[in-house]
Amino acid sequence: MSKIIKSTAILFILTIISKVIGFCRETILVSTYGASMISDVYITSMKIPMTLFAIIASAVATTFIPKFYEVEKNEGSECALAFSNNLINIVIIVSLLLSILGFVFAQHLVKLFAMDFTGEKFDLTVKFTRILVFTMTFVGLSDIMTGWLQIKEKYSIPALIGIPYNIIIILSIIISSKGNVMILVLGSFMAVLSKFLFQLPFAYKNGYKYKQYLDIKDDNIKSIILLLMPVVVGVGATQINSVIDSTLASTLGDGMITVLNSASRLQEFVTTLFITTIVSVIYPIFSRLSNDEDSSEFKDIIRKSLNIVILIIIPVSVGAIVLANPIVKILFERGKFDSNATIMTAQALRCYAIGISASGITTILNRIFYSMKDTKTPMINGVISIVVNIIFNLILINFIGHMGLALATSISALVKLGLMFRKLKERIADFGQDLILKAFRKVMIASTVMGVVVCLMNSGINHLSIINSKVYVLGLFLVILIGALLYAFMIMKMNIEEVKIILDKVTYKIKNKNVEAEDISQGI
What we know:
The chain is mainly α. 85% of the residues lie in helices and 0% in strands. The two termini are 37 Å apart.
C-alpha cells in the first residue's frame, strides 16, 4: 500500500501539471470563441470520433492489461509481446475501417450527436468531423501504449501525454482566431497524434518491439473479444450519457453545448486528477492479484483503494457544489465568455458535482470486476444507468433546462454505484464493506462541516469580487486552504486506517530526512 501511495502521489503531481495546461486550453477556447456557434461546432466534431472509437479503444486497453498478465504467465513474455502486436494490428485495421465509415456517414453522425444543428452550423460540423474521424487510429494505439507502460510500472509517461496535446491545441486556437478556423481542426488532429508518438519511444525502451503479425483466429484474441464487447458498453456508459446530454442540449439554443461542456470539463478534471491517477496504479495490481479472489491481499487492496478514493473525492465534490460560481468565474469568465455563461455553467457544475463521488467510486468498482475478468456486471449496470439517464433527462429538461441534463447524469451515476456495490458484495462476500461504509459516514460528516464553513467564509468575502478581483482570488484560495486544513484535522481525529497509512508514510519520510541532515551536519 505504501508503494501504491508513493506512485499515486508522483502521478498526481504530473497529472496536475497536465490538467492545468488542459484548463488553459479550455479557457483560451471559450475566451476566444465564447459560448457560440463555432465553439459548439468544434466541441461536437471533437466528441464524435472520441465517442465512436474512444469507447472501443478504452475497452481494448482495459481488457488488454489482465489478458497480458495471463498470457505472460501461461505462455511466456515472447507470446505476450506477439499477442500485443496482434492486438495492435487488429486495432489499426478496425479503426481505419471505422474512420472511412465515419467520413462517408458524417452527416448522419452529426444529426445523431446534435440533432438541432442546421444550415451553416450543420455543414461546418460535418466538415470538421470528416477530418477528425481519422484520429481514431491514434486514439486506439495511444491507449494500448498506455496499457503497456502501466504493465511495466511506468506510470509517469502516460500522465504527461496531455502536455504536448494541450499545447498543440492552444497554439491552433490562437492561430485560428486570426481568421482561418480550419487551423483549429488540423491542430487538433496533430494533437491526438502526439499522444501516441509521445509514448512510443518509451514503450520501445521498456521492452516493446513492433512486428507485422496478424492472426484473428488466435485464441487469446478470441477471448479478449468476448471480454471486450461487454466492456464497450460498460466503459461507454459515461460517453453515451454525454452524447445524449449534448444532443438534447442542442435543442436549447446556441452556446448550451459549450456551457455543459465547460461544466463537464471541470467534473472530468476532478475525476481524472484523483480517480484516473489512482486507477492507473492499482488496476495492474488488481489484475495481478485477482487470480485468487479469496486472497486477503486482494480484498485488502480493494478496501484500502475504495477508502482512499472516498477520502479524496467526497470533500472535493462538496467543495465544487459550494464554490461553483467563483470557480467558473475565475477559470472561464473572460473574453466572449460573459457573466451569463458563468451563471449557467456554475448551475450545471453543481448538478454534475452531486454525482462526482458516485462516478469516481464506480470507476474503481468497474476495474475490480474487469480485473476478475467479469465484464458483464459493469455492462449490465452501465445499460441500466443509460436508461436512467435518458428517463431523467426527458423529465428534468422540461423543468430546469440544461441543469436537468447535468442532474440526470448524477442520478444515473448514483444508481449505478448502488448496483455495483451490491454486486461486488455478492461476488466477494466480505471485502471489508462494513469498514468502507464506516469510513464513508465519517468522511461525509467531515466534508459537510467543511462545506458549511467554506460557504460562510466565501459569503463573507464575496463583495471583494466587485471591489478588487485579485484580492478576491487570493481570499478564495485562503478559504479553500482553511477548508482543506479543517477537513484534514477532522479526519485525522476520526481513526480511519488509510489516513494513518498516509500519515505514517509522511512521518517516516520526514524522520529519514532529519536523520540524513544530522548525519551530514555531524560529518561536517
